[in-house]
Structure formats: structure tokens, C-alpha cells
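Complex record, two chains
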Amino acid sequence: MTDEGRLETFVRGCEAVPGHRPWPRVRAGRAQWRALADLLAKTEWELLALWAEPAEVHVALRDETTLAVVSHPCPEGRFPSLGRIRPGAIRMERAVHDLFGLLAEGRADDRPWLDHGRWPVTAPLGKERAPRLGPPREAADYGFLPVEGEGLHEIPVGPVHAGIIEPGHFRFHANGETVARLEERLGYVHKGIESLMQGRTADEAARLAARVSGDSTVAHSLAFARAVEAAAETTAPPRADALRAVMAELERIANHLGDFGAICNDASFGFIHAHAMALRELVLRAAGACFGHRLMMDRVVPGGVACDLSAKGAATLKRLIAEMRPRFEALVEVYDNKPSLLDRTVTTGVTLTHLVHRFAAGGYVGRAAGRGMDARKVPGYPPYERLDFEVPVLIEGDVNARVWIRFTEIGESLRLLAQLLDHLPSGEVRRSVPGRAGEGLAIVEGFRGDVLTWVALDGEGRVRRCHPRDPSWLQWPLLEAAILGNIVADFPLCNKSFNCSYSGHDL
Amino acid sequence: MWKIVAATVLKGPHTMHGPKAAADALAELGRRVEAAARARLGRSLSIREVDAGSCNGCELEVHALGNVFYDLERFGIRFVASPRHADVLLVTGPVTHNMAEALKRTYDATPDPKWVIALGDCACTGGLFGESYACVGAAETVVPVDLHIPGCPPPPERILAGLLALIEAADGRIAPAAATGVSRSPPDP
């Protein structure tokens, strides 16, 4: 690789912003930001997140050796678009415009995204925040991309769906049974989490971080806590690191089991659904018994964890692991020996490897299609560097591959839990976080993929600005591509195998 | 597969005994359920779940109600795909501005008589999110609410106890007036 193709070289050419940890943040002027857009067209640097403050836009980037945040001040309220180069950033730029009023010049899509024309204000987090004038926008007043051709018909679905799932709108264009285009419309569960976090203490904001996406409450709490700890130049005690990993792996196992059951249920195979959900319930009950909350909400906090694991709790978890493994493996065998089930999952909903890389999609979506990134390995964080585990990678990219990634990960998580419980460090589980100004970035691996959280603290340790980026941001767009050419009836299978978070995306 | 089936037959099911109808929920319902409810519902409830802004935590626990431990359907309670088939709307989340109209339209599409349950702290009070540029707040700011089931999220047993209270109220086995503090007319024959 030439020097020019290195992120590090670009970062060295920009003005460093002090107090950002553990990776550098630099400020890029207009020319440098434009140069960045050109470099993104030529390199394979990954665009992990794009977010804003009232007069500055930030982008988190990574190449093989470096991770960095590049910021571009935009006092005029405009910045050159990166989404036109990297489609993964298109929705992020639309969200930045809705929330901050900052406009991406040359943007690929000028429709609003999170703002449905229903908020009482415009640009709620921006300098130009203003009361909205005129009546609320009609729900139908959204320009879905047109599709033309003989025999095409349109199927609108949502925001209220038939099942017990989160709200979002799917607009299908189908030719007979075959999907010619799917367009997602999200933002229905936008709760203004970023706005609510501002001005709160780290502990108060942690409760909001825990509710970014309920199924990833441990992962989001962990990313937030680690970002705060980085900003305040402190770390959690070793025992807290281990307990955080115990909770994170329990969350991963529980969600993967739930997804496994739900995918089989969408293929009308109730047997596996019933047994997988029973196993999931055992995990949640063990979590409830050990940590006092079935989903382990508010248990990972800045500075450590909110509750210790008793010897009895550790024994409960060891029994769970022993019981889980044979029962889970028996279910995998059932799955793998049912041709009628495999007929639904094999070659269905294929994501292409180049798209997965282009969007930096993580988790089972990326790993089922050749992108092996796992935040526990790279950049890595404690205690995983001392633990032995494999990250599975497949290349098929279909529903079946996403199911198999989950199988392997459940097995690896059970192995991780056993290692963690055999060598739990002793000592305190929480340290107080000093109230000082700073900025921190953290990436942790949730069940769905890598959760990235950026936080800026003021001199009293209050949150000036926080952006939790759920992995769904990078996965939702790929669902639109995966369903193309499939039949409408296979959409639930594809959707469930992605299981993107609506709440985590909408914030 | 047959080995698993055989083991299930030999060991017996996972299904646990159901909880008692929640006393506080019964008290709340005692003030609201009318004779028409008993005639219409009998011992069954059809529920349409509406996520109006939840973090999806409540949805996970509502899903859990369907697993073999809680086995919701044995109580005659089932989730339906359309509000037009529903007796009850189960609302979660601090109703967002972006979902308020969808929630109202779902309510309007549900035939009378109907009941609304606010599930979880957010739907009960607005919870951690309260009112903001993005959130309207508690479910009852948009639709009338008959029963509150608090919790963040409420565990399946608590949800089940609340739902059973609704059925018992509809079945005429309502908590005595002394317990609710409200006098009631006797149930229809």
C-alpha cells in the first residue's frame, strides 16, 4: 500500500484535536474534507459512522492499521457530501440534516429521513432550531423511488406490522411474486435520545444508552461506558471487565437463540421455534437470577458494573452452560437435517460480499458474506485479549449462512462463558469516574454487530454530545439489496435473518 | 428430532402454572369493565400489539409470553395480526410524534368494545423519555387507557397477571367492591 492510501497519512496531515481518546480526532478544513472524499473513492477505508454537532460534522474511519475521527467545521451549515462516494453514509447525512440542519452538498438523496414532518420543531439539535410552521406533513407525502414497468404492483407494509415487531414502513414493488424493489422508510421510533442525553451526568445518560435498543442493552451500555471511561481517562476494574463480558455473551446467546427460533418459525417450522425459545428463556432466567434483570438492563455502568456476581450466581451460570450445549446441538442437528427447512433458507436473501465491505456491515450480516470483522478481536478490548475464541466467517451470504454464523457464535460464547467463570478476577466491580472534560470513542461487539459510541464530556463530566451508532445503520440498506429477485413470501425470513433494530437506528 | 420429542414426553412439559390475576390490575379494571365486556369476551382475548416508540425491550418480554414456559394461548389469550380482529390494544413505548397518528388509526380500526393496555413504564408515564420534540409521552395522551402494566420492561409473569385480570374482570369474576372501593352492578345472567 502506498503511503497516500493510508488513513494514518491523511490523519497526520490534519490538525489534531486534543483530549480525544483512545484514537485520534483531527480537524479537516474544506480542502482536506474534499480530499477525504476523493480518497474514500480510491481506498477501502471503512466509514463506520457519520454524526454531527451544531457546527461540525464528524466521521469515524478505519483502515487496516488505524482508527480515527475526522471532523469538519461547517459554520455555514454545509459540508461536502461523503454519501455520494460511500452509500452507507447517505442515510446518516439525511439524519444529520434532519437533526442539525447541516446540509451535505452534492448529496445523493435530499429527502428527509428521521424527520417525518411531525415534530413541533425543525433541526431540533441544531443552531437553527425553530418552531415548525404549517400543518404536519401527510404520511403519504414521501417520495418513494419510482418503479416503472408492465405488471408491477406496489405493496405498502407498516408502520404497524402483523407480528409483534417494531414499527417501520416497507414499500415493495413486485412483479408477480418477485420483488423488483424494496424501499425502507424508518424513523418512526425516533425518541430524541441524543437530545435527551445532552447536559445529563454520565450515570443518567447511561440509562438512556441502555434503552437505545432493548435487545442490545448490554452492548450499548458497554459502548457508552467505555466511551465515557476513555473520555475521563479511567478504566473499569478487571473484575468488572470480566462481568461485562459474561453479560455480553449471555445477551449474544439469548438473542441468537431467539433469532434462530424466529427464522424457523417464519419458515413454519414450529418445533425448533418452541425449543429455541425455551432455551432462550433459560438464559434470561439465569441472567435474572444472577444480575437481577432478565435483559441485564442498567447493569453495565460507567466505571464498572452495578452488581457483583455471587458464587451461587457463578454456579447457576455453569449449570446453564452444561445444560445448554447438548440441547442446543441437538436443535442444530434437527435444522441441518430438514430439507424442507433448508429449502427455504439456502440461497435465499443473498448479500454480496462487495456490498458488505462497501457498507462496513458487521455482525452475522457481514460475517455470513466474507467480512470477518469482530470488535472483540479488532480493535479488541478487555477481557477478550486473554480469552480463546474463533470468529466464524462464511461466504454464501444467504439466510442459511446467517443462521450458521449464529450457531457457531452461540458455541463460541458458551466457551467464552466457561473461560470467564473459571478465571473471574477478584476485587472491586466499580470505580468512580472523575468529572473532567474529554472525548471518547468505543467500539464493542453486540450480538448484531459492532456498536460504536462517541461521547464528549464537559468540565463537570456531563454529556455535551453523544452519538450511539447501532450496527443496524450499516445493515438496513443491505436488506434492500438482499431481497431483490426473491419472492415476497421470503421477506420475513430475510428480515428476521438480518434482525436489524428499528429503535437502535431511529434513536 | 424424535429424541427431543421423546425426552419432552418423558420429562413432561416446561409449562409452569399461571400466576394469579394481579390484584392491583383487578382493582383498576373493576372501575372500568362493563357488562358488555363479559358478553363479548367470555374467556378469551384477542390482542393487537402496537409498538409506538419502544426500545424493543417490552416486545422481547411479550414474545416470551408465547414460549412454552408461559404458554399464553392456554388462557385463551392470543395475539392477532390486525386491529380489526382485536379486543385489546397492547401499547408500548413513549408514543413518538412519528407514531402518534399510526397508533390513533390502529385504535380507530379496532371494533368496539375495546380496551387499551399501556405496557411498560414508557407507555404508562412516558418513562425515561417523557415529553420532548420527538415524544408525545404516555399512551393515554393519544388513546384512552384502561389498564397499566408498569416495568422496564415488565417480566412475562407480570404481563400475564395483568392480562388475566382483564379476562377475569370480563368473566364476571371481578374483585369485590370492597377491594376496589367502587360499587358495581351484578353481572348479567
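Note: The domain at 3-129 of chain A is CATH 3.30.460.80 (Beta Polymerase; domain 2).
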